Amino acid sequence: MTIVEGFLSHNQCRDSMSWENVLGRVAFANCDPIFDGLEDEWNILPAPPSWLTGHLLRKDCITAPIPAADYAKHSDKLLLIPKLGIVSQGDVGSVILFGTRPIEQMRDVALPSDSSTSRALLKWILKSMKLDPKFIDKGPDLNAMLNDSDGALLIGDRALIAARDYPDLVKLDLGAEWTNKTGFPMVFGVFAARKDSPISVMNKASKDMLRQYNMFLNDESWRNQVVNRTSVKLGFSEQRISEYFSVEVQNKLDNFSKQGLEYFLKEVCEMQDEITWLPNYE
Q1: Distance CA 127, CA 130 (A)
Q2: Is there a single domain that holds both residue 195 and residue 237?
Q3: What is the pTM of this model?
């Protein structure tokens, strides 16, 4: 295929893929229980959390799980889908501050660019501990980050893998720290859509995603298939992935989680507006 043919093929593909038929998803395992199995019904757009915010605003997809902190910045343009989120009730296992010295002695901390929620949350936690390290923006590579800084924040699959591969590093689980300090669950990601999106399409997307997650929770055979695929993908045992999905990360946004989300948006993100939820949701 020539360069011109490849360019034409790419653009024809884009033209045929209406944004209303596309679901954005975080390119981490924490959303596998929702999106595994939806590929036949929807086009799936995987990306890092913060990138999904841009995709959503540009109408590259009908909905996407974006960082809660990004929703605070764009709440005038976005609404939230009830019942779905990326939530921890304590340890999250995949949003972790790693370090080569005790947290109280960290002079500088490297921050990744792929999630605004974890960055805002870490700064809030350290401020509440009366700590004021220097923050440095870096790519999400643990060794490179710790070569230049005392601490390094990682999220998603990279954090899961680093926690396994570097057991001797100092670690602070941000989900556990938030719950310890506030008593609330931590909502890292919210399922958002543009306010000008067709309500019927948003309703279909939300119902399909919730149906898929409920099947993961209630159908043992399907759950085992999803766990197996994720464990193979990440190189973990099925027992570890099952624990991750049941104990650490959940995708259901219940009323108590909504309270935690509201507190985070007001306390950490200083959001003044009330949350706009998808109307006519059943």
Answers
A1: 5
A2: yes
A3: 0.91
Tokens 């939806």, located at residue: 38
Choose the final residue of a domain: 151, 182, 213: 182
What DSSP letter does each residue of 219-256 carry, written as one string? -HHHHHHHHHHHHHHHT--HHHHHHIIIII-EEEE-HH
Residue 3 is assigned to a structural domain of this protein: no
CB-side exposure of 216: number of CA atoms within 13 Å?
26
100-118 pLDDT, tens digit each:
999 999 999 999 988 899 9
Query: Residue-wise over 138-163: b if at least 16 C-beta within 10 A, else e?
Result: bebebeebbeebbbbbbbbbbbbbbb
Q: Which of 24, 80, 50 is nearest to 257 (CA)?
A: 80
**For residues 123 and 127, what is the distance between their CA atoms, to the nearest angstrom?**
6
Helix or strand run (H / E) with residue 253: strand 250-253
Question: What is the CA angle 102-95-33, rounded to 5?
Answer: 155
Tokens of 14: 């884009």
Q: Collapsing DSSP states into helix, strand and coil, what is residue 233?
A: helix
39 token code pair: 């590929």
Give residue 47's domain range: 19-87+187-267
How confident is residue 17, by pLDDT bands cut at 50, 70 and 90? low
Q: Where are the alpha helices (DSSP H) in 58-198?
A: 68-73, 116-128, 142-148, 156-165, 174-182
Determine the Cα–Cα distance for residues 56 and 67; give it in Å rounded to an integer: 12
End-to-end CA distance of the chain: 48
Tens of pLDDT, residue by residue over 206-236, are 999 999 999 999 999 999 999 999 999 999 9
Q: What CATH number is associated with residue 46?
A: 3.40.190.10
d(CA 278, CA 194): 10
